Amino acid sequence: MQKNKLFILTGPSGVGKTTLCERLSKDFPTLIRSVTFTTRFPRPQEKNGIDYHFISIQEFQEKIRRQEWMEWKKVYGHYYGNAKESIYYIWNQHHSVLLVLDVQGALQLKKAYSKDCICFFIQPPHLEALENRLRLRGTDSDDTLQIRIQTAKNELYDAHHFDFIMINENLDETYRELKSKVASLC
Fold first, then answer.
1. Largest Cα span, the chain
2. CATH assignment of 6-185, given 3.40.50.2300, 3.40.50.2000, 3.40.50.300, 3.30.160.20?
3. Environment class of residue 36 by beta-carbon count within 10 Å: exposed (0-12), middle (13-18) or buried (19+)?
4. pLDDT tens for residues 4-53?
């Protein structure tokens, strides 16, 4: 791995970013995932400190005030952010950082760290497939689901801002392609 790089997986909610990230983490031990902070409640099976750092709105806003975020945003009514301290810690260990971010956060970091940032935009083969994935996940109300689909439509327009665009029609095939690209960048 090249020192002090940011490898970012971004794309619409439900497209498979987290699953792809987990596989990359296993295959590239020097590519360290920075765990995102959020103010939302954990979903079933999510563990604090592993999937996300779950904190209160007050704690999150205090970190905003103290300028502790590398990037942050409010998405679907909840705050999400990545702490400077976490990313700098990984960099100081001479590793590269792996992040799973929504499109807004990825654009922020791409702008701020363009020469050190490698972004993969993961997109669904079509919006119906994304809607089916989100429904199968079973974590959102119908209203929230429709908001996620509309947001996904808007996010797809931003795909051209990123280094690589990958269509996740088949998770195993998408992962093989992603793994190959990451290996070539090491």
1. 44
2. 3.40.50.300
3. buried
4. 899 999 998 889 999 999 999 999 998 999 999 999 999 888 999 999 99
pLDDT in tens, 108-141: 999 988 888 999 999 988 878 877 777 777 777 7
Place of tokens 């797809």: 156
Beta bridge pairs of residue 118: 7
Query: Is residue 13 classed exposed, middle or buried when 0-12, 13-18 and 19+ CB atoms within 10 A define those classes?
Result: buried
What would the pLDDT profile of 46-66 be if each residue is shown by its tens digit?
999 999 999 999 999 999 999
pTM summary value:
0.86
Query: Which tokens go with 92?
Result: 């100081």
Q: Which two tokens stand for residue 62?
A: 């205090």
Question: Model confidence at 2, in pLDDT bands (50, 70, 90)?
Answer: very low
Annotated domain spans of the chain: 6-185
| Residue 142 neighbours by CB under 8 Å, 6+ apart | none
